[in-house]
Amino acid sequence: MADTENNMLLLERIGKGEEQALEELTKENMGLVRSVALRFRGRGTEYEDLVQIGAIGMIKAAKSFDFSYGTAFSTYAVPLIAGEIRRHLRDDGPIKVSRTLRKNGSDVMKEREQFLAQMGREPRVSELAERCGLTEQEIMEALEAVSPVRSIYESVGREEEGQLIDLLPDKESEIEKLTDRLALRQAVGELCQLHRQIVMLRYYKELSQEQTGRILGISQVKVSREEKKIMALLREQL
After folding, report:
1. Which of 88, 95, 115, 144 has the greatest number of beta carbons closer than 10 A?
2. Does 148 score more than 50 pLDDT?
3. DSSP labels for 193-232?
4. CA dihedral (17, 21, 23, 29) positive or negative
5. What is the model's pTM?
């Protein structure tokens, strides 16, 4: 991987519109791209193809880098590289899922969460079928359709149990943890001020929705509503 000082010199040249500098930066940082691409192997796309897709993310990082960020290029580039690969696997991968299946999957997951909140247990397939107006076979197909693309940052269980970084499995490699944390940090940083405050209070300070609402001067219902918006935004980004 290229050293930090050389990256900065190349980024200065890229800022001036030098295409040669962009080629040099890409070439010298392919080791970073390869290390990020490694974690996505075995998901239906050849490793070398993942590397090429990740390189697109690095080029985007190079063109959008701002020195005022006060961060190393590699730190800034990692979430963009990973994000580009994630988008490919989600939207352009070899397994295509129809809009109907995706919609059914979304509806089924909503019903599952509501059932879990009301009954305190996981619903049976037959119970989901009855609530959704689908056959048991359609329920299974819908669940299979949405399972591969669910974000690791999606809220789990009842609302008070949802966590962000704590959802990272203990057995992940250090590069996996790093890329996920950086991607999450960047995604949260792009939220509006209210949403950033809610994330900080709810998931870093581990306050309840009611406590968060009191601090921000809004109702618990408003916190809950905004939290759902936040999760949707983060799922889209990650």
Report:
1. 88
2. no
3. HHHHHHHIIIIIS---HHHHHHHHTS-HHHHHHHHHHHHH
4. negative
5. 0.44
Beta carbons of 201 and 211 less than 8 angstroms apart = yes
Tokens 């791209």, located at residue: 33
Closest residue by Cα to residue 93 from 61, 56, 50: 50
Tell me the C-alpha distance between 28 and 117, whole Å.
Answer: 51
**What confidence tens digit (pLDDT) does each residue in 201-213 have?**
888 777 888 888 8
Closest CA to 225 of 146, 159, 165: 159
Residue 92: partners with Cβ closer than 8 Å, 6 or more residues away: none
Domains of the chain: 4-92 (1.20.120.1810), 97-150 (1.10.10), 160-238 (1.10.10.10)
* Structural tokens at position 41: 């192997």
Q: How far apart are CA 135 and CA 125, in angstroms?
A: 9
CA 153 to chain CA centroid, nearest Å: 7
Digit-coded pLDDT (tens) for 187-235? 777 788 899 889 888 887 778 888 888 888 899 899 989 988 888 887 7
